[in-house]
Amino acid sequence: MKRLLSNLKSVLILTLTNLLILTSIMAQSPQKMSYQAVVRDGDQKLVIDKTIGVKISILYGTHNGEAHYVEEQVLRTNANGLITMEVGVGNSLRGTMESIEWSKGQYFIRTDIDPSGGSDYTISGVSQLLSVPYAFYAETASKLLDDNSRHGCGQWARPWRSEGNNCIDDDIHYIGTKNDADLVFKTVEIERMRLTTEGVLVVDSFQLDSETAAGFVLISDAEGRASWADPLSIAGLEGPTGPTGLTGATGPTGPTGNDGTAGNDGATGPTGPTGNDGTAGNDGATGPTGPTGDDGAAGNDGATGPTGPTGDDGAAGNDGATGPTGPTGDDGAAGNDGATGPTGPTGNDGAAGNDGATGPTGPTGP
Fold first, then answer.
1. Other residues' Cβ atoms within 10 Å of the Cβ of residue 340
2. Do 189 and 207 contact (CB within 8 A), yes or no?
């Protein structure tokens, strides 16, 4: 198994067979196509009876072009290493088969495979689609013919043309989008105008056909119909109210009137707030010295002053009494041996010792 996965990662050889049954051009073809591939490993051996994960991509233009449709399926190879599938019925990852414009150009089909049956695709193969998708293109033409016949044109109608069309039905013949996307107008690949999905028309600028209309503006009437108009012929809207003007100068004071009758005294008003302190006056003259007061309690001792200088030595005092004998000190180190003294006098003879043992008898003389 390990060898098989190693070979599959190195190379994939796909034999592609595209199958599609074409019916009458008037019939509706299903939005799917049969697809077969033979899977071989790097040693050219068939991968048989094995569940594999497959991702199919429809590429536009080239073998590595943009993917217009992508789907995934889980399939099992048969005894001949063959997988058979219907493209268009798998789990779609991008786009739909219906949205592919087969008439736009060349398309390629890419097959990615995960040999373990998951979505970790490690091997792939690409092949150009030849005749199969054009059955879908034929269906498009058939639908145009069939639609126009059903709406009573009495003739085979042509596809939608830029030079004009007959037998128009607003339900099926229009310029626009069916999905949730803006309608975009371009020239030389530059966007010039956009109609959003909310119906808002967005343009860079407007230009009138005639130079005589230069300076005109676009206006709309009460029913929403727009037209170009000379701005000088348009009555301007009432502007907003201007700001209030400045207050005028005060007029001269009128003549003083006669004094009226004195009124009754009003009630006493509340006491006003205390005034601020006045400026401090100059210091008065110094009064006489008062009598001396009683001594106060003794204060705490002051800090010890610095030591005074050492005085002269006094006269020697009398010897004190002899103190007790101190403990005996440790023995000092042994001194050197003294010189040898003179030999003393010879002592008296000691007492006679016991007789020694009898010696052996000597040899007999001649």
1. 6
2. no
Residue 78 token pair: 């048969």
Which has the closest alpha carbon to 85: 11, 19, 22?
19
**pLDDT tens, residue by residue, 28-69:** 455 788 888 888 776 788 889 999 999 999 999 999 999 999
pTM confidence score:
0.36
CA triplet 280, 283, 285: central angle to 5 degrees? 155
Residue 134 neighbours by CB distance under 10 Å: 16
Where in the chain does DSSP place strands (E)?
13-19, 33-40, 51-60, 67-76, 82-87, 91-94, 107-114, 123-128, 183-187, 190-195, 201-203, 217-220, 226-229
Q: How far is residue 329 CA from its own chain's centroid?
A: 91
> φ, ψ for residue 146 (rounded to 5)?
-65, -40
Tally DSSP H helices, then E strands, for the chain.
2, 13
State whether residue 128 is helix, strand or coil: strand
Residue 208 has pLDDT above 50, yes or no: yes
**Residue type at position 334:** A
